[in-house]
Amino acid sequence: MKTIYIDFTDIGDYEDFYTQLKEKITLPEHFGDNLDALSDVLTGELEMPLHIEFANMTVDQLESFEDLLTTLEEIEEELEGFTFSYYLEQYESDDDDTEEEDNDDESDEQK
User: Fold this and answer.
1) Taking residues 76-88, what's their average pLDDT?
2) Which of 44, 46, 58, 101 has the greatest number of C-beta atoms within 10 Å?
3) Measured between alpha carbons, how far is 46 from 27 in angstroms, rounded to an integer?
């Protein structure tokens, strides 16, 4: 199964998304940068099986790209051989910083 990874770290809008998508897969020359065109290409022009994975999405991007996510989920339900997943970016835990600050306070108290 072919997997296409789209990293959302540097994606701010749909133009950025389609630019990265075009770098990952060969789209027909007549492809229009819109969800209908994406649906048409996925359901009729790309070889299956295919998995598309979005990585490093932010919560804001989940809202901004809600239509895209919904479209891909609908295609996944209808098209045999197509799967889709997305993952939120990982945040560093603040617990480590808090623990260091606590240790610094203890060191200061011992001086």
Assistant:
1) 97
2) 46
3) 9
Q: How many structural domains is the chain composed of?
A: 1
Dump the DSSP string for 40-97: HHHHHTSPSSEEEEEEEE-HHHHHHTHHHHHHHHHHHHHSTTEEEEEEEPP---SHHH
Which contacts of 2-5 are long-range, i.e. CB under 8 A and separated by 24 or more positions? 2/47, 2/49, 2/50, 2/51, 3/50, 3/51, 3/52, 3/53, 4/50, 4/51, 4/52, 4/53, 5/53, 5/55
- Residue 52 has a pLDDT of 98
Task: Tell me the residue range of the domain where 62 lies.
Answer: 2-110
What is the per-residue pLDDT for 111? 46
